[in-house]
Amino acid sequence: FFYPFDRFKQEEISFDDEQEGLSDQIIIRFSHVVAENTPKGLAAQKFAELADEKTDGLVKVEVIPNGTLYTDEQELDALMNNDVQMIAPSLSKMTKLAPEWGLFDLPFLFQKNEDITSVFSSEIGNSFLRLHEDENITGMALWSNGFKQMTSSESSLKKPEDFKGQRFRIMPSAMIEEQFERLGAEPIVMPFDQVYMSLEEEKFEGQENTISNIYSRRLYELQNYMTISNHGFLGYAVLMNKEFWDHLPEDVQSSLTDAMDETTTWMLEESMKMNKAQLGVIERESSIDIHYLTEEEQGKWLDNLQPVYQSFLQHVTEDFVKEFVEERV
Ligand code: LMR
């Protein structure tokens, strides 16, 4: 058992000393691995502002970006140990806890942004948020960073054969791994904070990510080709330490839920705008060759990738995802 205010009393004492009346302030440390100027970075900041506003300053959310506190390999453990109270890992990285999250890594699962928002707000979305209560994790929301694109230093990626022999950095997810293998490429799992340097050191030839990550980490400067393929989806599970959450007063929980709902609505819209705007900047300001995958080319990718749906069904036990996928295979 622990009391949520203990952390504040131990660690923020100097700040608190000077400010009469704030001794009951609740500190939530929110750690994430991307830059501040990204959909996730901005949403974390917005949540902090709204939490402050809706609790009249009682709750202070400290956002720690860029993986400076915990890398994506460490942050789930840090959350479960209450070293931080909030994180927002990619859904792909959640497959470490349950293969069900691999649903969101299935190729061409979503066709358009509206598909994402409708699944997120459905019963399936809610089921995912409750999936890890036994592991001391409460799901607060699902956020979206939209669609992933492919980049390479070697060749323009149009046909499945173009992937042959190239190494691609991927997030840790069996479903992503299988896709690259089915395209004849070699997937290499690597944490996000090492991607830029490893590309510089030519540890792999290509990678997949959203425009906002390709832009904010300047990955486009190290790659010669980009295919706007929208082949995969990058979402985030916004998670809170459950014990911490359960010990918050009910009115604080309700204000934080409101703050999160408002943030989520804002971020789903904002991430679309941001990815679009930053693609424009890359197009204007860099020499990277950009190819838009045609429908015919997409069909060929899918011919190779479709079996991943069957593999997924063999991995999972939860009926709510099985039903969802079975409708599509
Ligand atoms: C990645 O590792 O490529 C992404 O998950 C980073 C992020 O959190 O957007």
Q: Mind describing the biggest β-sheet? A: 9 strands, mixed
Hetero groups bound? (2S)-2-hydroxybutanedioic acid
What's the gyration radius in Å? 20 Å
C-alpha geometry: globular
Number of helices, where a helix is a run of at least 4 consecutive DSSP H or I residues: 14
Structural class: alpha/beta
Secondary-structure element order, N to C: HHEHEHEHHEEHEHEHEHHEHHH
How much of the polypeptide forms β-strand, as a percent range?
A: 15-25%
- The first-to-last residue Cα distance is 46 Å
**Regions with pLDDT < 50 over 5+ consecutive residues?**
1-21
Helix content: 40-55%
> Using DSSP, what is the number of strands?
9
What is the mean pLDDT? 92
Keywords, please?
14 helices; binds (2S)-2-hydroxybutanedioic acid; globular; 9-stranded mixed sheet; alpha/beta; disordered N terminus; 329 residues; C4-dicarboxylate ABC transporter; single chain
Structural description of this entry:
This protein is of the alpha/beta class and 329 residues long. It contains 14 helices and nine strands. It has helices at 6-11, 13-18, 39-54, 75-80, 113-120, 123-129, 174-182, 195-200, 211-216, 242-246, 250-285, 295-305, 307-315, 319-326; strands at 26-31, 59-64, 86-87, 137-152, 167-170, 186-189, 206-209, 225-241, 289-292. Strands 1, 2, 3, 4, 5, 6, 7, 8 and 9 form a nine-stranded mixed beta sheet that branches. Helix 3 (39-54) links the parallel strand 1 and strand 2 (59-64). The protein is globular. The protein starts with 5 loop residues before the first helix and ends with a helix. Residues 1-21 have low confidence and may be disordered. It binds (2S)-2-hydroxybutanedioic acid. Keywords: Membrane, Signal, Transmembrane, Transmembrane helix, Transport. InterPro entries: DctP_fam, TRAP_DctP, TRAP_DctP_sf.
